[in-house]
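Hi team, as promised in this morning's meeting, here are the two structures we talked about. I've kept the exact order from the run log so nobody has to guess. The first one is mostly here for context; it's the second one we should focus on when we meet again. Sequence first, then the predicted structure tokens.
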Amino acid sequence: MKKTLLVLLSVFACLIMAGCGQSTSTTSQVPTIKVGYTLVDHHASLMVAAKKGEAFQSSGTYLKPVVDKEKYELYDHGKKVANIELVVTKSGAESAALFAQKHIDLSLLSVTAGMSAIDGGTPIKILSPLQTEGLALVFPKDSTVSGWDGFISYLNTKDEPVKIGYHSPTSAPLMVFEGALKQNKVPYTRNPNELNAKILLVDLKDTPNLIPALTSKQVDGWVGPSPHPQVAETTGIGKIVLDLRDLPPQGAWYDAPCCAIAGRTEFLANNQPVVVKFLQLMAYAGDYSNKNHDEYGDIVAQWIGIPADAAKASTIVFLTYPTDTWIKNLGVYQELMNSMNKYKGPLKGKPLNEVKDLVFDFSYIQQAQKN
């Protein structure tokens, strides 16, 4: 009886294994990609791709929702090629930390945060630009300050440093603003006891803290990414003093690199085909957003939870390929970050062209453009 039972169990186990084997042969396993992003419209190409879903089928690559805003399936010409899990991050600095901990595989983040992470030894590569523009200096709604000249005049009326907040020490808004201060010889500090400076830079730790810091008068103003300046204006809380692209010297900050797509090198090496497909989808969604601004604004407003008017007032431009202008301006960032002693590792003291192989891997986006 025991032998008979053992035989039956063995046959049953074999049938299960055979069935599983048959299932495996007909249903291939796909990788899961954990994608970091921040709740700002700079990362809206991801939101647009997720919300449009199968409406993007004609592009070849598209997403199918599993759990709204959390889990999706990535398809290429009708074939599932990956599972996508979205991870909300507070800033590029947090994305860098999650990369180092292997908690995310790809991330949309500020390009300067990516460069700082690489300098610090985090094993990632910048794969593609994401967008440019969309940075502003904001003051309270009743402020009379306007433009760069008005801002300098305002600084000169104060006996103490004017407090200007920022959301992350490696953010593009801070990098552009700090670079302009340095180039225009405006003295600034992070030390609240240094009273001879014109500006005290204050780390507000996170983008959701920008508007509350204004209403609580923790700071006199702040530099931040859209849609936060537009939200401040449309809700009657703040006023955009100037677009950071208009900082002097005139024209130097146009098409300033802001956010990019980066990937963890270990993941990239093992998942090249699906990374290419993901980048292809991001490029298509970015181009779609550029051409359908109002629809893009409605999607951002719904996703982030902001007024549609604020989302549609954004001035960002999605960029899907590393143009010569983008590379040139990133070289300016590299010079600024070195002049401000932002680096301690292999990027320290080096021009961009000497470290480009350490920072970039554009082979993925180049392949995505060919498909």
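And here is the second protein, the one for discussion:
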Amino acid sequence: MLVSLRDICQIAEQKNMAVAAVNSASLEAIRAAIEVAEETRYPIIIQHAQGHESLVPLGCVGPIVTALAERSSAQICLNLDHCEDLSYARHALDLGFTGVMFDGSMLPYDRNVELSGYVAAMCSEYGAGLECELGSMGSREAGERDEGGTADEAGAIYTDPNQAQDFIERTALDILACSFGTVHGLYKGEAKLSYQVLTDIRDRVKVPLVMHGGSGLTDEQYRAAIDAGVRKINYYTYGVKFAGEAVRRMIDERVFADPSANVYWHDMTTTAHESLVKTFEHVVRVFSNGAEPFVI
């Protein structure tokens, strides 16, 4: 069933867990996410980033996910990730998206507040939830393939807790994405997270918080962030990296056994799907933070 971003994060708040938010850049990823949610009985968020429009168009992914989610027993949110254009957000909501992440983090503060408030009103019309970002991880969602490194190397600006309180109160958002040491893409060094940023925000305003750049951390780092108030964790880069490595191994093994052997496209997509299921199941269970599986 389709549920709103607001509701799915309130479930996570009540159970002191985080919901995995995985990107929908392929049918294999969409299928894997839904299958894992049904098998584990934990909710999941399927996301389409505006920066991934070249990988799969919004007009394709929206109808596919809504159709599959509506007939699924799992609780599924379809969220628009890192949207920077109001018209793109409106189009997604018209297609059935139940959440929007408006990213005005690169704008001047007052302009970010103004546009975020506008998107909040838009989401309210559709009963959808709103996520906004304050602070910057430096690296961008649709940056270079190997973008990452450390937060300091990427030029991150950690979220200011006092500004976060003002931002939340003025925009009427549902959840807030914070910069506290994670990065988009692949880590090239050890991740150093400032959990104090999260706890300071939560001391001021009780809203669910979001971790972007959630790939590449240890299970202990995930759990510490959840205990500090993170209720949604975006996970993409390492999942597709592992799937690519699985495809490479499959091809290498087949060609090694028989250099003339054919490798068909469905061999690659099947292998990728199996890898994504394994990876998504692991992170969903870790992000559950010990909460019992459940259904509505």
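Starting points for discussion:
The chain has a mean pLDDT of 91.
The two ends are 10 Å apart (CA to CA).
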